[in-house]
Amino acid sequence: MEKRKEHELKIQENGKTSKSPKLCGTNYPVSISFIVVNEFCERFSYYGMKAVLTLYFINYLHWDQNLSTAVYHAFSSLCYFTPVLGALIADSWLGKFKTIVYLSVVYVLGHIVKSVGAIPSVGDSTIHIVLSMVGLILIAFGTGGIKPCVAAFGGDQFDEEHTNERRKFFSIFYMSINGGSVLSTLITPILRGDVQCFGGDCYALAFGVPAILMVIALVVFISGSGMYKKSPPEGNILLDVCKCMGLAIKNRWKSSKYDPKKKHWLDWAEEKYPRRLIHEIKMVLRVLVLYIPLPMFWALFDQQGSRWTLQATRMNMAFGSTFVLKPDQMQMLNALLILVFVPIFDMVVYPLIGLCRINLTPLKKMAVGMIFAALAFGSATLVEVNVTKTVVEPAPQGQCLLQVYNLAVSDVKLNIPGSNLFSQPIKSYEDPPAYQHIQLGGHNKTINMAVTQNESPYQCVQTFTEQKAYTLVLHSNGSGIVCQLATDNIHKSEKMEAYLRFINTRSEAVNITVGAVDFYVPEDYGISPHNSVERKEYTNDKCTSGSQDFLITLGLLDFGASYTVILKGDPGEIILQKMEDVKANNVHIAWQIPQYVLITAGEVMFSITGLEFSYSQAPANMKSVLQAGWLLTVAFGNVIVLIVAEGAGLDQWMEFLLFAGLLVAVCIIFSIMAYFYTYVDPDELDKLFPDKTVNDDDEDNLKKNQKYHMDQTDNKYWKQQKLRISPRWSMNRNTYSVNTMTSWLNWVR
Predict the structure, then answer these.
(1) Are 407 and 505 in contact (CB under 8 A)?
(2) DSSP secondary structure string, 33-55?
(3) How far apart are CA 78 and CA 60, in angstroms?
(4) What span, in angstroms and rounded, lies between the C-alpha atoms of 529 and 400?
(5) Which of 119, 146, 461, 605 could cross-link with 369 by S-S, CB 3.0 to 4.6 Å?
(6) What is the H or E stretch that residue 17 is in?
(7) DSSP per residue over 268-309, as a string?
(8) Model confidence over 254-286: pLDDT tens digits?
C-alpha cells in the first residue's frame, strides 16, 4: 500500500482530492506529458508563423522593407509587453490553468484570423491588412499571456520533495521548446514556397498549419484537466511593488521642507508598507538600473527574423545543384547553435578562462556578450556591402538609368547632348557593362540623341522620366538605324526568382513557355514584358514560331537576376543570346553563418549570465519583478528597431553599422555602471532582519557588508555557482519558480 502511494499524485481542485498514477512507476506525474506536448505545439505555432511573417508583409501585402521591418518588431514588442499582463491575471485573478485556457482560445482565434487574411479571394488588400493586424494583436496577447504561466504550471504538478524530477522536467520542457522552434522554422518556409495555392506562395497554408498546431495544443492541454494540480491565485508581488513606489512618490511630492528628511525616496512609503519590503525594493531597483542599457542588445538580436532574413533574400541560397535553402529558414541556425554552444561554454570556455586566472564576473560576461553581438552586425555589414554590389540602385530624383543594346550588324556611336556618356563605340550584340545615369533636370525630358553607324548620322528622339530605368534598343532597317525605348525592371525578386524578357529580331512572332510561364514576343524587334520565373536550369523549353516548334535551352536563370534574351536566326532556326541586365545574387548564404555564430555566442554570454546575475541579486519574493523588467528590455529593444527602420532612412549596410556602433557605445556605458556596482547577498536579509523588519542600524550594517560580498563573489558564489540555473533557461526561456512571474524557462523570444 505504501509503495502504491509513492506513485500517486494528489490533485487539489474545488476542495476535492483525487489521485492519478505517475508515469511508468516514476515520480513524474502523468499531467506533465500534456503540458510538454502543449508547449511543443504552441512553440511550433508561434515560431512557424513568425518565420514567414516578414516575407508575408513584403510579397503578399506589398509593403516596403522598412514598413515590414517596423510592423514585425512592433508585433515582437507587443509579445514581450503582454506576459506581464498574463502573469498579473494568473496570479491575482484566474489562476494559471484558466489563464492558459482562456488566452489560448484568444491565441487560436488570432491564428485563424491571420490565416483567413492570407487568402487572396477574401476581400481586397484593405481587408487583408485589417485581418492580418487583428490576427497579430490576438496572437500577441495569446502567446504573451500564457508565456509566464505554462512552465510554472508544470512545476506546480510536482511534490516539493521531488526537486530532481522537477529539474529534469524543465530540461524536457526546454527541449520541447527547441524542438518546436527548429521544426517550425524548417517546415513553414517549405509550406510557403514549395506549395503553390491561389496562383502564388501559399501563405494561407503556412499560417494555417501553425493554427492547427495551436488548436492541438489547446485540446491536449484541456484533455489533462482532470489530472492537474491547480493552485489558487496567490496575489502578485509586482502589484505591491508598484503600489509601494506609487505611495512613496505621492508622499514625497506632497512633503514640505519642514518634514523630516529621508535617506531614500522609497522611505516615504513607511507609513503603510513594512520597511523590509521597502528595502527589498531598493535592492531590486539597483539591478533594474543596470537594465537600462540592455534593450540595445535585443534591438540587434531580434533582427534575425527581419533585416537578416531580408538580407538572405538577396543572396545565393543554393547548396550544390539539388538543395536550395529558403531565406526564412536561416533563423533555424540560432536554435541549433545554442544547443551546441551552451555545453561548450559551460564545460570548456568558462573553465579554461578560470584556469587562466581571469576574473570574468557576470557583468563582464554580459559586456563581452554585447561585443559579440556588435561584431555580428559588423559581419552583417561586410556581407551587406558585398550583396549590394549585385544590386542596381534606383536613380535619384532628376535622373534616370539607361543602358544600350546594339542589335545592328556593326558598331555604333551614341551621343547624348551635354553628356560624355557612351563615348566609346557600342559593339554589336554586346552585353552592356552597367546602367548609366542620365541627367534630366526635372520630372521628365525629351532628348534628341545622335547615333552614328559607319560615319552615317541618325537622330533618336526619346522621352525619359526620372527615377526609371530604360534600355535603348538600336537596330537596322532598310533606311538606317532605328531606336526604341523599353522600360526595365531593376528590382531583385523578393521571392528569390529571376526576371526574364525576350526581344525578337525575327520576322515571325514567337510563343515561349519557360517553366510554367508563357511569353508572347511580337515580330520585328518586339519586346515581351518582364515575368518572374523560378530559379533553376532551363533546358528543352517549348518555343513556337509560325508553324514550327523548337526546343530552346536558356541555361541557369539564377537568384535575383534579370535577363534579356535576344531571339535571332533565319525562319528555320532560333538562336539565343542571353544578356544579364541585373546581376545574379553571387554572395552565398554561407557567409551569414559567422554573424549567426557571433550573435549566438553573445546570447549565451549576455542573456544566460544576465538572468543568473539578476536572480542572485534579488530577494526571493522579488524575482518576479526582475522578470517583468527583463521582458520589458526585450520589448523596448524591438521598439528601437521600429524607430530606426521607419525614421533613419539609411542604406542597409549603414544601418547595420549604426546598430553595431550604438551597441559598442552602450557596452561602454554598461561597463562603467557595472564597475561601480556592489554585489550583495540577498540571503543576508534573513540573518540581519529575522523579525522581517528593518531599522536604520540594520540598513547601515547591510551597506557595510556589501563590499565584503563583492569581494567574496567569485569564491563564495560564482565559482561554486550554488544558485546557477540550467543553461538556456534564460532570455527566451524562463527559469521556474512557483510564482508565475518567476517562471524563467519558457521562451520569450
Answers:
(1) yes
(2) HHHHHHHHHHHHHHHHHHHTHHH
(3) 23
(4) 20
(5) 605
(6) strand 16-21
(7) GGTTTS-HHHHHHHHHHHHHHHHHTTTHHHHHHHGGGGTHHH
(8) 887 777 788 888 887 888 888 778 878 888 888
